[in-house]
C-alpha cells in the first residue's frame, strides 16, 4: 500500500501519526504565506532543542555570507510559544506525547497541532492554532490552549521577540498599549514587528515582562487544577520598508496590529474562511475518481493562492521563501508558469500587473545590456524580489533567450487581453529595447552570408557556450518579426517618440530574413545547436544518467537538462506541422532529465497536442503530488505547482488562444469520472466540466463569448 505523508482528504492535510523523523518534511508542506509574510513552523522533538520557526517578509533582503547573493532575511520568530509544566519545558518526546494531531485546513488556512502531554504530576491537552491573514497581509494570529485532564499543573506560557543575528537591532520594548515591539535594520531596509498577547483562563495567571540585550518577552504563570484550562492568544503585525522611514514603518505596524488586537480567534478565522471561500469559488478544481489527485490539486492551488504576488510578478518566489537557508529565487520559468497560472486563477490579479514587473525592470535590463557593450535591454536569467541575481560566467552573459521570452509574454498578454493602451506605450518601449538588443548582439557569417548568435547558452544548461543555437535563433527571429509587426502600426509621431528611424526597422527586417535557423536532419529532428548536431542519434545506452555524473560528461552526451527545442515548438507550434512536432517529441522525450520545475509541463502539453493522453495524464498526476509525496524537507516547489495548472489547462483541456479566440479540445483520463476547473479569460470566469462523453463550458461572470469547442464554434452565454 502506498504510504503518504498525510492522510488522503479533499480539503485537509492531516495526520495522527507523531513520527518525529517526519517533522521537518511536514513543516515544509505546512508552510503558510499570504503573499507578504511567510512562516515555516518547526516542532520541538527533543528536550535540548528550541523551536526553530522561520518567518520572512517578501522583499526584505540581505546578502548571503557564503555565496554573496541576495537572500530573504529571517525575521524574529513571532509565533512560537514556550510552555513549561511543573517547571519542565514541554517538548514533543515520544514517551510523553499521545493522541497527536496535525492538520492544515485548506478552507481557511488554519494550521492546528494538538497532543496529550504526560507530566509526572499531571496530564494535559495542548493545542496550538495559527494562520497568516489573507484579509490583512501584515498580520498573523496564534492561539494556544492548555487544558488539564488529571492532576495539578503549574503552567508557564511565554512569547518573545528575539534578535537572530540576521539584522541590526534598532530598538525594542513595550509600548503604552502593552504590545511588545522590535525594530531591525539591514543595509537600507528595515522592519518592525509588534506582538500583542492576552490570557483567558478560569484561574489566575500573572504576567511578567522579560528582556535582555537581544530579546523582549511576555510570560504568564498560573496553576491549573481540576479541569481548568488556559487560552493564550497572540496578535502579530509586521511592516517593512526603507530604513530612512523607520518611524513610518513602526506606525504602520502599530496601526495594523490595532485592527486585530483583542478580537476573538473564532471571529478572525470566520473572516479568513470568507476570503478563502472567495478564492475557491473562483478557482476550485474538482476531480472525481482519484482522491490523491483531488487532494494534490487543491493543495497546489492553496499554496499558489497563499504565495500570490500582491503587487506584481516581481514579488513571486519559486521556492516560496521556504528554504531552510533563506531565499526563494525565481527564473525565466516563473514568468512562463506562474504568470500564466495567476492570470487564469486569480480574479483580483489585474492583467496589467502581469506586465508591470517587466516595465519596472526595463532600466535595469538596459543597464545590464550596456555593461556588456550592447544596446537595448537584456533581462535577467534569475532574480529575487525583482532584483537581478548575478550569474557565474558564461551563463550570466550568454543566456540571451530571456529577452525573447519577455517578448513572448507580451504577445501572450495581448492575445489574452488585447490591452492596446499598454502595448502602445510601455509594451512597445520594451519590445523596441529587445529588438535593439538582438540587433547589437548578432554575429555575421561571411561564408554563409547569414547572421547568427555565437557563444550563447540556451535553457538546457548541459550545453553552454554554443554556436547557432536553434532555440535562441528561432526565438530571436520570432521576436524581430513581432516587433516589426507591432511598430508597423505606429504613426510617424509614435515612431519618433520611440526614436525609431526607418533605417533601424530596415536593419531589423534584414536580420530577421537572414538569420540562420539550424535545419532538421533527415528524420525531421532539430538539433539544439551546431555542437549538438554530432550527438543526434548517438548510441548512449552504455552511459545512463546517474547521480554524480560530471557536467563535462553530460556535455559530451545527448542528454538534456530540459528540452529547449520542445519549448520552442510549444511556444511557436503554429509554425510547425505535426510530423515535426512528433519527431522531436519522440527524440527528446527519452533524453530529457527534467532538471527544471516546468520542464515536464512542456512535454505534457506537447504530448496532449500529439494525442499522447496517457503521457500527459501521468505527468499531471506526478505534478499534483510532487511536494506532497516528496521526501526531501528542503523547500516547496511552487513553480511545479504552477506548472501543474498549465498541464491541466493546456494539456488535459488543450486550451489555446489564437488571435484572441479561445479554443479547447479536452479529454478525461480513463480512471476519472469527471473533472472541472475555473478559468479566467478576458474578464470572464468560465467553469469547464469534462467527462469521457461530454464537455460543458459555463459562463459564471462576464459577457457572452464565442469559443471553439472540439473544432466547432459555440456561443457561451
From TrEMBL:
Q: Which GO terms describe its molecular function?
A: carbohydrate binding; glycosyltransferase activity; hydrolase activity, hydrolyzing O-glycosyl compounds
What highest taxon heads this organism's lineage?
Bacteria
Known SUPFAM superfamilies for this protein? Galactose mutarotase-like (SSF74650), Six-hairpin glycosidases (SSF48208)
Glycoside hydrolase family 65 central catalytic domain: from which residue to which, for each copy? Answer: 359-645
A biological process term (GO) from this entry: carbohydrate metabolic process
Tell me which residues make up the Glycoside hydrolase family 65 C-terminal domain: 657-714
Indicate the segments forming the Glycoside hydrolase family 65 N-terminal domain, all copies. Answer: 15-240
Which InterPro entries does this entry report, sorted A to Z? Answer: 6-hairpin_glycosidase_sf, 6hp_glycosidase-like_sf, Gal_mutarotase_sf_dom, GH65_N, Glyco_hydro_65_C, Glyco_hydro_65_M, Glyco_hydro_65_N, Malt_Pase/Glycosyl_Hdrlase
List where this protein forms a coiled coil. none
Similarity comment: Belongs to the glycosyl hydrolase 65 family.
Q: Under which name does UniProt file this protein?
A: Maltose phosphorylase
Amino acid at each position: 500500500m502506498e504510504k503518504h505523508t498525510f492522510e488522503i482528504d479533499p480539503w485537509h492535510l492531516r495526520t495522527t501519526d507523531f513520527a518525529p523523523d517526519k517533522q521537518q518534511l511536514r513543516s515544509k508542506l505546512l508552510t503558510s504565506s499570504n503573499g507578504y509574510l511567510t512562516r515555516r513552523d518547526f516542532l520541538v522533538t527533543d528536550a535540548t532543542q528550541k523551536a526553530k520557526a522561520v518567518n520572512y517578509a517578501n522583499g526584505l533582503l540581505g546578502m548571503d555570507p557564503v555565496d554573496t547573493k541576495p537572500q530573504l532575511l529571517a525575521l524574529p520568530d513571532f509565533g512560537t510559544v514556550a510552555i513549561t509544566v511543573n517547571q519542565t519545558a514541554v517538548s514533543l518526546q515520544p514517551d510523553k506525547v499521545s493522541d497527536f494531531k496535525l492538520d492544515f485546513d485548506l478552507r481557511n488556512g488554519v494550521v492546528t497541532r494538538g497532543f496529550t502531554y504526560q507530566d509526572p504530576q499531571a496530564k494535559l491537552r495542548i493545542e496550538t492554532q495559527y494562520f497568516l491573514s489573507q484579509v490583512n497581509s501584515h498580520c498573523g494570529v496564534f492561539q494556544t490552549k492548555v487544558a488539564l485532564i488529571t492532576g495539578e499543573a503549574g503552567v508557564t506560557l511565554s512569547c518573545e521577540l528575539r534578535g537572530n543575528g540576521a539584522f541590526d537591532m534598532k530598538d525594542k520594548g513595550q509600548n503604552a498599549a502593552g504590545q511588545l515591539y522590535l525594530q531591525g535594520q539591514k543595509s537600507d531596509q528595515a522592519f518592525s514587528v509588534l506582538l500583542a498577547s492576552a490570557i483567558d483562563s478560569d484561574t489566575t495567571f500573572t504576567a511578567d515582562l522579560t528582556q535582555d540585550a537581544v530579546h523582549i518577552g511576555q510570560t504568564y504563570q498560573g496553576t491549573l487544577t481540576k479541569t481548568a484550562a488556559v487560552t493564550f492568544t497572540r496578535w502579530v503585525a509586521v511592516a517593512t520598508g526603507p530604513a530612512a522611514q523607520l518611524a513610518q514603518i513602526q506606525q504602520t505596524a502599530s496601526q495594523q496590529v490595532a485592527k486585530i488586537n483583542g478580537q476573538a480567534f473564532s471571529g478572525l478565522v470566520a473572516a479568513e474562511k470568507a476570503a478563502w471561500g472567495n478564492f475557491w469559488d473562483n478557482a476550485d478544481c474538482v476531480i472525481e475518481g482519484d482522491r490523491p489527485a483531488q487532494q494534490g490539486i487543491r493543495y497546489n492551488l492553496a499554496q499558489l493562492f497563499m504565495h500570490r504576488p500582491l503587487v506584481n510578478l516581481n514579488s513571486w518566489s519559486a521556492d516560496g521563501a521556504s528554504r531552510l537557508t533563506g531565499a526563494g529565487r525565481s527564473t525565466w520559468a516563473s514568468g512562463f508558469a506562474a504568470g500564466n497560472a495567476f492570470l487564469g486563477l486569480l480574479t483580483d490579479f489585474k492583467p496589467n500587473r502581469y506586465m508591470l514587473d517587466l516595465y519596472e525592470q526595463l532600466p535595469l535590463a538596459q543597464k545590464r545590456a550596456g555593461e556588456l557593450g550592447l544596446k537595448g535591454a537584456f533581462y535577467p536569467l534569475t532574480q529575487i524580489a525583482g532584483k537581478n541575481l548575478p550569474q557565474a560566467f558564461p551563463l550570466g552573459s550568454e543566456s540571451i533567450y530571456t529577452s525573447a521570452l519577455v517578448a513572448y509574454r507580451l504577445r501572450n498578454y495581448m492575445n489574452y487581453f488585447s490591452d492596446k493602451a499598454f502595448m502602445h506605450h510601455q509594451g512597445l518601449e520594451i519590445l523596441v529595447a529587445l529588438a535593439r538588443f538582438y540587433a547589437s548582439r548578432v554575429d555575421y557569417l561571411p561564408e554563409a552570408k547569414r547572421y547568427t548568435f555565437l557563444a550563447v547558452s540556451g535553457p538546457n544548461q548541459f550545453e553552454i557556450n554554443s554556436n547557432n543555437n536553434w532555440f535562441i535563433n528561432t526565438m530571436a527571429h520570432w521576436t524581430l518579426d513581432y516587433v516589426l509587426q507591432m511598430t508597423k502600426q505606429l504613426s510617424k509621431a509614435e515612431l519618433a517618440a520611440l526614436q525609431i528611424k526607418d533605417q533601424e526597422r530596415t536593419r531589423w527586417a534584414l536580420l530577421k530574413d537572414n538569420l540562420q535557423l539550424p535545419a532538421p536532419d533527415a528524420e525531421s529532428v532539430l538539433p539544439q545547436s551546431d555542437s549538438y548536431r554530432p550527438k543526434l542519434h548517438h548510441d548512449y545506452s552504455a552511459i545512463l544518467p546517474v547521480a554524480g555524473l560530471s557536467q563535462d560528461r553530460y556535455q559530451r552526451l545527448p542528454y538534456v537538462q530540459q528540452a529547449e527545442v520542445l519549448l520552442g515548438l510549444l511556444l511557436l507550434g503554429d509554425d510547425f506541422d505535426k510530423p515535426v512536432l512528433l519527431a522531436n517529441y519522440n527524440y527528446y522525450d527519452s533524453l530529457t532529465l527534467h532538471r527544471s520545475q516546468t520542464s515536464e509541463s512542456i512535454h505534457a502539453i506537447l504530448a496532449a497536442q500529439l494525442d499522447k493522453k496517457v503521457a500527459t495524464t501521468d505527468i499531471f498526476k506526478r505534478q499534483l503530488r510532487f511536494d506532497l509525496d516528496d521526501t526531501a524537507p528542503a523547500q516547496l516547489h511552487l513553480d511545479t505547482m504552477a506548472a501543474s495548472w498549465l498541464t491541466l489547462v493546456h494539456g488535459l483541456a488543450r486550451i489555446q488562444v489564437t488571435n484572441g479566440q479561445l479554443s479547447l479540445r479536452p479529454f478525461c483520463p480513463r480512471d476519472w469520472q469527471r473533472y472541472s476547473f475555473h478559468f479566467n479569460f478576458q474578464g470572464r470566469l468560465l467553469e469547464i466540466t469534462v467527462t469521457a462523453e461530454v464537455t460543458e463550458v459555463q459562463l459564471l461572470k462576464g459577457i457572452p463569448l464565442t469559443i471553439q469547442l472540439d473544432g466547432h464554434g459555440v456561443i457561451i452565454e
